[in-house]
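Hi Q.,

Before the meeting this afternoon, I wanted you to have the 4'-deoxy-4'-aminopyridoxal-5'-phosphate prediction in hand. No need to reply - just skim if you have a minute. The sequence and ligand are here:
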Amino acid sequence: MPATVLEQVKAELLDYRGSGISVLEMSHRSSEFARIAEQSQLQLRQLLAVDDDWKVLFLQGGASSQFSLLAMNLAGKGYAEHIITGHWSKRAFQEATAIASARIAASSEQQDYRDIPAAAEWRLDDASAYVHITTNETIHGVAYQDIPQLDMPLVADMSSDFLSRPIDINRFSLIYAGAQKNAGPAGLTYVLIKRSLLEQVPAGLPSMFDYRLLAAKKSMLNTPPVFSWYVASLVLDWVTNSGGMEKMQQLALKRSALLYSIITESGFYQNSVAENARSRMNVVFRLQNPELEVKFLQQAAQAGMIGLKGHRSIGGLRASLYNAMPVSEVETLVEFMREFERQHG
Ligand code: PMP
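Predicted structure with the ligand bound:
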């Protein structure tokens, strides 16, 4: 979370801009919240150059809920084609299989998720409903550097690289992302969906799972998470005022390059992801033995650096470098890594 956003939340917590109440106490039907909702919608549309052909939803339930909602709303009678590139794309596939005829069009699982399968090799059926990708694999540190141009609807889980780089919105038909990495606090999920897709939503879905209804009710079919939405609106302002998508990309490249260069140079730290598929958000690395990794984490914590443990499903180490991370903090980590290598290499 950007420090200035936290400061602003603190300053406005008890009395939101002279309204006499906290956002925590505010009705989602109040004029104050209507403004927050409208502004954040506009801000996000501007940041990603999303036009009126799209609906922008602010939902609850995390990206995980969307794994199922997508299939309910969009699969129809066709296949949901999934590209498996790591933990999260596999989870999306597993959830979709409970709802629709989902199948795997390409997978890098046999290669331990070291690369992204080339789009030319995806086995897609023209009659399929959509193709699902995960643009950044948060756990495996793998990302699409280029988004393929397909002849069928492309659906993307962008939870961990949303708002980290400019995107060509025309390549996609639906984009979703949990807000909690680059784009707000936990509790809010962004869903951007092309209007033309909404027309295919089948009748009879439970209301809260029906994209068409959620869009018609401006994401307020029930009480939305007003506080998360408000904090997200401040983060969207921050991204805009910090220079928008180009600037976020520049910073992401700078932060990740600092880490990848020490990993590549040293031989002491290892990352096995193909160079053109390396994530700019989550840099995963390992040391020769697990005991040394434990020592690394202990000494890093003593130096004030926490959250460097790899995900429990694969172990190792991981530095997550989201938008709000100052470049200077990555430089501090790199210095620490050099010193640790000097002592233990
Ligand atoms: N997809 C990706 C790429 C993720 O990183 C995560 C969470 N880290 C999820 C989906 C699940 O998100 P949530 O916890 O918001 O359901």
